[in-house]
Amino acid sequence: MEKRSVLSTIRFIFFSILMLGLIFSAVAITVLNNYKPAVKTYIAGKFIGYFSSEAQFDEAYNDLVTEKQNIDSNVKVYLEEEPVFESSYIRDSLFENQNVYTNLRAEIKTEYTVYEVSVNDKVEMTFNSKDEASKYSESLKEKVSKLNVAINEKKVEELGEITSIERADAILNDIVDRNKPVTIPKPVVTYQNPNNYATTSTNQTASDAIATAAMMEGGVWPTVSRYISSPYGWRWGSMHTGTDIAGKYGDPIYAYKSGLVTFAGWNGSYGYMVKIDHGNGLSTWYAHCSSLNVTAGQEVSQGQVIAAMGSTGWSTGNHVHFETRVNGVHTNSYNFIVGK
Question: Can you say how many angstroms the Cα of residue 296 is from the centroid of all Cα atoms in its chain?
């Protein structure tokens, strides 16, 4: 009986171990079928996501590096801290329901190198190519030697706005135009009015020949100075109908274009003034003169000295009031001389 009892005990133990083994195997098979090995990834203490391996993390990181380099091949892409990996097992569905690219993109740092072209310490253009920056810098130095042009290399996290070639060309041309030296037309010896500037006027208009010549001409800046003391527009509650260009007493005043003098003399608040008809509906007025060099009925050429600057009439200082009329209506005269 004792022997039979021992055998029963051994048989019980054996079958129990066998059952535990089967249960463990079943659990292991279930786990292996539903869970996969993974690496839990952190950067700077922030959870990024689960990857099947460190190699898969490297693949995702390289994809994002390529994404940045497609914007600028010279960009530096880096992580401020190395990733930390922890071994783990997770369900398959968890691999699919995570935003590892979004999380990883947030931790990627970029460093772009840009080249700023500054003119007199003001940034005018920004390029991501040193060659382009050098091209425009040298062009500006060549065309306007007095400018202080420099290239500043700068490291930035975001690329920002890069100046297009079309925009850079426009900026360059604008800077050159704004820094053009004043070109003084060659004075033309003209008839001096012997009548102490007695007022003369005529109803004549420019001949077809003069009108045609004026139409072909580009026009000139009406005096030596380029300082605008008062622009066209509303001033002190009333319309200022011309562009005031201040200068020195006696500075020459030039005919904007070829034309026929229709008025020369005193005209109330305008003081001594000259009116010129250029044909095709355009006439120009020059007011507050100190002396006049022409009389009504006289034909003048572009750039001819017609008067001298002064402060006659309603004036607070030496200047020429340059006014343009189109079909008798005053218009912004600065638009006719800008860039001249």
Answer: 48
Nearest to 177 by CA among 210, 113, 221: 221
* Cα distance between the two ends of the chain: 130
Query: Is beta strand 252-254 parallel, antiparallel or unpaired with respect to 259-266?
Result: unpaired
Q: What is the pLDDT of residues 59-70, one digit of tens each?
A: 989 998 888 888
Q: What is the pLDDT of residues 246-266, one digit of tens each?
A: 999 999 999 999 999 999 999
DSSP per-residue string spanning 131-198: HHHHHHHHHHHHH-TTS-EEEEEEEESS--PPPPHHHHHHHHHHHHHHTPPPPPPPP---PPPSSSS-
Kindly write down the DSSP assignment for every residue of 31-97, as one continuous string.
HHHHEEEEEEEEETTEEEEEESSHHHHHHHHHHHHHHHHHH-TT-EEEESS--EEEEEEEEHHHHHT
CATH architecture of 200-337: Distorted Sandwich (2.70)
Q: What is the mean pLDDT of residues 179-203?
A: 59
CATH 2.70.70.10 domain position(s) in the chain? 200-337
pLDDT value, residue 110: 85
